[in-house]
Amino acid sequence: QVQLVESGGGKVQPGGSLRLSCAASSTIFSDIFVVYNMGWYRQAPGKQRELVASISRSGTLNYAGSVKGRFTISRDRADKVLYLQMDDLKPEDTGVYYCKADSQYEYWGQGTQVTVSS
Fold first, then answer.
1. Which pairs count as long-range contacts for 21-29, CB under 8 Å and 24+ apart, including other chains?
2. Each residue's pLDDT tens digit in the chain (118 positions)?
3. pLDDT attached to residue 1
4. 84: left (phi over 0), alpha (psi -120 to 50) or beta
5. Which of 6, 31, 63, 86 is 20 to 30 A off residue 102, Cα-Cα?
C-alpha cells in the first residue's frame, strides 16, 4: 500500500514559478523510489489527464514536449518526496496536478490545483 500526498499548488501569474511536492509513504517498502516509477500528471478542465514528467526507478527522466526546458522532476529518496519545479508557467499549464506511483499496481494522490492567470 502506498500513500501519496501532493502540496504546493496555487495561483501564479504567467512567467511565475511553483514547486509541487508529493510525500510518498509505504507500509511495506522503506525505499519507495527503488520499487516504483514515479510521475506527475495533470488534468485541465474538460480534458483528459496527461503525463507531465516521470522518473523511473533507475532515474531515467521523461518530459512532455510542452514542458521541456521549463519543468524539472526530482526526488529526495531520504525524505521520500517527489518534486516538480515549474518555471515560466503559462496559462495552459493550469490544471489539477497528480502524483502517481506505479509498479505492479498504480497509486494516485488526491491532486493539487495549479492556476496560471493574470
1. 21/81, 21/82, 21/83, 22/81, 22/82, 22/83, 22/84, 22/99, 22/109, 23/80, 23/81, 24/80, 24/81, 24/82, 24/99, 24/101, 25/80, 26/1, 26/2, 27/1, 28/1
2. 899 999 999 999 999 999 999 999 988 887 888 889 999 999 999 999 999 999 999 999 999 999 999 999 999 999 999 999 999 999 999 999 999 999 989 999 999 999 999 9
3. 84
4. beta
5. 86
